Amino acid sequence: ASKMAAQTVGAADRYVGETKRQLRDGFGVYKYPNSFFTYEGEWVKGKKHGHGKLLMRDGTYYEGEFFHGEIDGHGFRKFANGNTYSGQFSKGEMNGHGVMTCADGSRYEGEFDSNQREGHGVLTDTDGGIYEGSFHKNKRHGPGSQTYSGGERYEGDFVRDIRQGHGELRYPDGTIYEGQWRSDMFNGEGTMIHASGMVYEGMWINGKPEVEATKIVVLGEQNVDVTQGTAFSLQVELRNEEDKVVPENGREIQVSAAVRYFAHTQGTTLFDLVEDMEETPIPTPFGYEVVTYPLTDTDQLPADYDVKPSPRPSYLIAEQTIHEAGSDAASDTGRDESADPEANTTLEADNASTGTSSQHRSRSPSDAPLPEETPLPPPPNTCRSEAGGVFFKDLFLPGAPPMYRPFILMDEMDKEKGGKGGKKSRNPSAIKPAESATSTQNLEVKLESKLSTLGKHNEGKFARPGDYVIMVHDVTTPPFLGRSLQPAFMTVKVTPPKHKGGGAAPGKKKSTHKHP
Q1: Cβ atoms of 228 and 495 closer than 8 Å
Q2: pLDDT tens digit string along 393-419?
Q3: Model confidence over 323-336: pLDDT tens digits?
Q4: Taking the model in full, what pTM does it have?
Q5: How many Cβ atoms are within 10 Å of 93's Cβ, its own excluded?
Q6: 334 secondary structure, DSSP code
Q7: What gap in Å lies between CA 148 and CA 432, rounded to an integer?
Q8: SS3 labels along 139-187
Q9: Helix crossing, 347-354 with 437-452: angle to 10°?
């Protein structure tokens, strides 16, 4: 029969508990000779067997099942670093299914082997990221899925805790990459469907496409003449720094127009019409700044326009002549300009017709009567690239709204001045009114005279003859891989329509000088 032993069992052992045949058997407390370990629990034939608790002097302990003197079975272990483990043990080590909760807040639930994560498990990081999949020697290894704290989700292969092999990464904004990985980056064949709608399929090197577009290039001539009231088309390509076409699909490209920007000087009334204009001037590669000008396409035009279909596409050509319903706009424009010689007179002619009127000198351009404004059609739709190319068909420059008219007229007047022996300013933004009061007054009177005639030349529907800038921008949103392409610029010169019978453009005075 077993009995309680209050004495030392064996030469150097200290045991208090039940014994049987001089062996520890039943419940008892045993303190090891080194005084670091203490066991209290069940004994069988002198060995720890059954349920017990092994305490260490540093405050850590194991509580659970013992088998023939070894920690074996299900138990709970508290470590010195604050980590805890609850699960299966074998021969004193974590083996089998268990849950490890770390002091830093991370948590692992899954399979263990020899005290390491091995096999299938779920690891929750301190930042909230969750990995579920295969482990080997404590690291993510093999197939698995990782949800990151930022919302990204990866599903695919891991090698020694990094993404390597084949996998799919989904971003919170909807962007998806599927393909090959190496060293935790896109490497090899892969496809990205970007949140903006752009699609790239091909080789990736260290997280970037092997061939990446950096700029937009306009095909054909960079300086083109277009007859007033005529549509034109435009083709661009997406190219890299080596000037090779990059076959990207889905990049969003926008085309817009602009006119030269002339800076006004404080204290003048020359630009009273645009004093509230908040638009920031845009730099161009032509050495001057511009402000945006309305641009549309024939699909956006109202019903009172009649458009002839284009016979063939081109890079940038006059394709269609736009007519007002029931009349020939080009002929009407020509007749109007012929009837009004002031429309295209030079600065000297303006001086002659307006310089003697004291009443005109006392008025400012802001007092000039403006024609009734024609509602502008909406701008052309953006286009998506296909195989690295974009084609804008049937673009059209409508008449200028009041706020843009001073810029256009100042450009004309600057050219007229240069044509009469003066040099055209290379930097129009630096043009300022003349220093003397008389010349400043004359300049304002000339501008007023031109503004007062705008309503006579179909300005509500057609862009006034002159120079315009066409801009092509990458407006992919959000930008693909965080970067937008360099924009492209070109110039379009709108010229007056010719008479049906031929000859020079209407509106210009014929020379009356007779040669000897």
Answers
A1: yes
A2: 989 888 776 666 566 656 555 555 554
A3: 443 344 334 444 44
A4: 0.69
A5: 16
A6: H
A7: 59
A8: EEEEEEEEECCCCCEEEEEEECCEEEEEEEEECCCCCEEEEEEECCEEE
A9: 90
